[in-house]
Amino acid sequence: MSDAFEEIQAIKIKRNSYREKLQKRKRERHELYTLTSTPVSSALTAESACPDSNASSRSDHSEYERDVLCILHDSLPSLPITSADLIDQLRKNLNADISSSDIHKILEKLAAQDIIKIKEVTENGVFGYTVLSVTESQSSCQSQSDDTENAESIEMSELNDHVPPEKQAKVDKKNTEDIMSLISMPTIREKESKKVGEQILDLLSKQTSKEKSLAERFRSQGGAQVMEFCPHGTKVDCMKLNGGPGFAEKCKKLHFKKIIQSHTDESLGDCSFLNTCFHMDTCKYVHYEVDGPTAQPKEINDSDSPSNTASNKTLNLDSKNGSSSSSNVGSELTLYPPQWIQCDLRYLDMTVLGKFAVIMADPPWDIHMELPYGTMSDDEMRQLGIPALQDEGLLFLWVTGRAMELGRECLQLWGYERVDEIIWVKTNQLQRIIRTGRTGHWLNHGKEHCLVGMKGNPRINRGLDSDVIVAEVRATSHKPDEIYGIIERMSPGTRKIELFGRPHNVQPNWITLGNQVDGVHLIDPQLIKAFKKRYPDGNSMKPTKS
Questions:
Q1: Domain final position from 111, 134, 157
Q2: CB-based contact 135:114 (threshold 8 Å)
Q3: Residue 232 CA to its chain's centroid (Å)
Q4: Can you tell me the distance from the alpha carbon of 143 to that of 149, in angstroms, rounded to the nearest whole number?
Q5: Is the residue at 403 inside a domain?
Q6: Residues 285 and 344 both lie in one domain
Q7: Residue 488 burial (CB count, 10 A)
Q8: What is the rounded average pLDDT of the residues 412-426?
Q9: Which portions of the sequence form the region Disordered (predicted)?
């Protein structure tokens, strides 16, 4: 609002400056006219003096006529007025040297034009007139103002005629820009509407009490239990870039040190694969290892005491699908240590496992690449017995390459709706983005996707984590451990199962299924009973005879 007001004031100031210039020009012209008319009048002869004096008297009468009309217009409420009063006002206000005969002639002329009505009077033997009314004084004054405005417009046009075309074009352009800037400025209503929208957005972006309580519940006890890598890499580089010797010891972040072997050639630079290099024993490029301890000294607090750990071992759970329930106080499920079953998922009867709140699968998709493990065909993936594991819950399905479209098809076929997608951005040992990935037909893949499918309406914690994981790559098909934390925060304390798992995937309160785990390791008594009943010999690696 203030900007628009300032623009309007600037335009007014500009207009007033034009008016001042116009008035100055009029005064100059009047002075020139006065100077040039004086010598001419003095040079006139006596014979020509009489007509000129008559003309000047006529011009004086016409000028006094306008003044008399203005006085009569101002004196409308106090009419009638005598000619003697008019003479007094003219002499007092305008310093006019006018006689009574002149004013009588002016009044007689106006009366003849039906502009005023007069009456002859004689006071103290002196003849005069009394003005009774004014009929057209307003129009006369209006015509006078119109004449003045016309004169001003003529003067303005004359002034503009003397302005150069280039300057006039610049002035017109600037005036146009001023008008366009005023038009483009937001109105008060638009500003108020925008302000209300910003206030609503600010309110919606604030955490509710429930969200704050939920975030506090899953906050790490004793602060973050991780160590940050130094951006300078090695201690030598950290010391060079940060102020001389001794600084690297003050830097509490993790550093790397070079692994220099007899066959290493430092001039070649760093190995593209670093700690995932398959030929580290013979590779001539530079490799690295962490310099110093990789864990912070752990402080013992009340939350880590054995009594608290034991008290948090049981949760109220819904025995039907493994989801937490506050209403079923009587049904409790122990959070068991890791359990696993060595099996072939193409033949395993998944009905013996019960229901789970969360399923995660990292299938061996046939992505038309040479892989160090066997793959499954598309039809075998579609025929997996995943629907028997859940009535409602979440399914986390890792996909890559051409399997991204097949994974979406399988989700729909198994009865799930894709509700989200997690991206794993891969980094190397030095915490840099990977540019030489081993996968990808056309571009080197530096990320992987995990589709999130939902069946039914499970009770989960929403909005706690991001859908992006930035983590270091490790062995082939070794997914980041951060995914387990995300799943646990979404569905804490519930039964979870991982399909196509390997020994490094086993987690507390998870059951891991895969053909690379070691044998059968079950702790849940109900699950042991059901599994032995279905597989008396404990072998689920081959199809059973029906």
A1: 134
A2: yes
A3: 33
A4: 10
A5: yes
A6: no
A7: 19
A8: 94
A9: 138-173, 295-330
Structure-token pair, residue 296: 């912070």
DSSP 504: G
Residue 249's pLDDT band (cuts 50, 70, 90):
low
The DSSP string of 142-209 is: HHHHHHHHHHHHHHHHHHHHTS-HHHHHHHHHHHHHHHHHHHHSPPHHHHHHHHHHHHHHHHHHSPPH
pLDDT digits (tens, 9 = 90+) for 479-492: 999 999 999 999 99
Cβ-based neighbours of 255, under 8 Å, separated by 6 or more: 229, 230, 232, 233, 234, 235, 238, 248, 290, 291, 292
Q: What is the DSSP letter of 270?
A: B
How high does pLDDT run on average in the chain? 76
Higher pLDDT, 238 or 220: 238
- Report d(CA 270, CA 308) in Å as an integer: 47
Using a cut of 0.85, tell me whether the model's pTM lies above it. no
Q: Name every residue whose Cβ is closer than 8 Å to that of residue 239 and which is 6 or more positions away in sequence.
A: 245, 246, 247, 248
Taking the C-alpha atoms of residue 344 and residue 347, their distance in angstroms, rounded to an integer, is 6
Whether cis (ω within 30° of 0) applies to the bond prior to 80 is: yes
Rounded distance between C-alpha atoms, residue 400 and residue 411, angstroms: 15
What secondary structure does DSSP assign to 283-352, as a single string?
Answer: --SBEEEEES-SSPPPPP-GGGSHHHHHHTSEEEB-TTTS-B-SS--S-EEE----EEEEB-TTT--GGG
Say how far apart CA 86 and CA 187 lie, in whole Å.
55
Structural domain for 239, as ranges: 229-291
Residue appearing with tokens 């709706």:
417
Contact 117, 98 (CB under 8 A): no
Report CA-CA distances (Å) from 506 to 337, 357, 484, 539. 9, 17, 11, 20
- The pLDDT of residue 311 is 37
Neighbours of 233 (CB within 10 A): 20
Same domain, 286 and 343: no
How confident is residue 410, by pLDDT bands cut at 50, 70 and 90? very high
User: Same structural domain for residues 241 and 371?
Assistant: no
What's residue 90's pLDDT? 74
For the stretch 493-538, pLDDT in tens is 899 999 999 999 999 999 999 999 999 999 999 999 999 999 988 8
Report percent pLDDT > 70 for the chain. Answer: 72
| Number of domains present in the structure of the chain | 3
Distances (CA, A) of 374 to 166, 215, 364, 379: 82, 41, 7, 15
